[in-house]
């Protein structure tokens, strides 16, 4: 059975292996370590199947117009290559959004494909008055947002410095 749960102490190395395998490089794995070392992980969820971690999702705090207003960024999200296209990322995203809402976070942004993330209720962030200094327009990924509670903070979004 697939279980979505919070990262536990000792999971770090397995998560690192998974993130590097999913992205096919070490950059995103290093990002996860950097966020962990800097105490900038607001939520870290893993998908576990038969005691193996096969999916991982991380949320870190963002600033809006330089203010901490309780919004989070969802990134990165990783699924073990052999396990992709079986709904594991979707299960993680749904569980993490429920958790963020329950924990009273204000909202979540991410850079991604509007069609895929629209399935979970994400909308273009500009509809909520949120923007990024630079977006990866060439990849078709845009800043998307989901607000859990009004009033919605507006303005320029800044990711944690570990994102570089
Ligand atoms: C992106 C990723 C996490 C998706 O994991 P997954 O478990 O395969 O996702 P799901 O099975 O829940 O959903 C798959 C569906 O969403 C679509 N999808 C998933 N990621 C997508 C993306 N980035 N853009 C467009 N569509 C995407 C797929 O086309 C697929 O749809 P289909 O099966 O109807 O064709 C996984 O492919 C991965 O780890 N990729 C490498 C790391 C990465 O690029 N992460 C995202 C950026 S942080």
Automatic annotation (TrEMBL):
Which Pfam families did the record assign? Acetyltransf_7 (PF13508)
Q: Which residues form the N-acetyltransferase domain?
A: 2-149
Q: Which InterPro entries match?
A: Acyl_CoA_acyltransferase (IPR016181), GNAT_dom (IPR000182)
Keyword Transferase, does the record have it?
Answer: yes
Molecular function as annotated in GO: acyltransferase activity, transferring groups other than amino-acyl groups
* Keyword line: Transferase
This chain belongs to the protein called GNAT family N-acetyltransferase
